[in-house]
Amino acid sequence: GDWPAFPDTVAALEALGTRHELAILSNVDDALFAESAKRLRTDFAAVITAQQVGSYKPNPRNFARLLAQLDRPREQILHVAQSLFHDIAPARAAGLTTVWVNRRHDRPGFGATPPETATPDLEVPDLATLAQLIEAAR
To answer: What is the pLDDT of residues 56-115, one digit of tens each?
Structure first.
């Protein structure tokens, strides 16, 4: 519950949230996300946890739940995540456009996640860069 957000995350979510609805699809339980949400200081249009779905990503059920709960065409959803294994590969399989936040861009390996060869639609080093790119594209 006291895991800190990355330094760029709060400001990036704030910037993105001014023009876009934000949703969370997380591999945690409701209580843990409630603690994390305090640090993120963002109003999310939807929060979907592994506890609610009854499975953990990369299970396709998590992405099916996301699509059902958001109730909008896949083309209107941009899935942004750090894990190629848990997020980018299954999101691509679900037909979503993806952005890989490659926080390890300057280091070898995959960190704590299993290796994966999924190809995202866009790769950024952090959320601040994504927020800047989206704002510049307007």
So the answer is: 999 999 999 999 999 999 999 999 999 999 999 999 999 999 999 998 666 666 666 766
CA quadruple 106, 109, 110, 111: dihedral, nearest 10: -80
Q: Which residues, 6+ apart, have CB-to-CB distance to 49 below 8 Å?
A: 24, 26, 27, 28, 29, 30, 33
pTM of the predicted model as reported, rounded to 2 decimal places: 0.91
Burial of 38 (0-12, 13-18, 19+ CB in 10 A): exposed
Predicted local confidence at residue 112, as pLDDT: 66
Hey, is 39 helix, strand or coil?
Answer: helix
C-alpha 35/C-alpha 40 separation (Å) is 9
What are the percentages of helix, strand and coil residues in the chain, rounded to 5?
Answer: 45, 15, 45
Query: Nearest 5 degrees, angle CA 90-CA 113-CA 62?
Result: 30
Residue 41 DSSP symbol: T
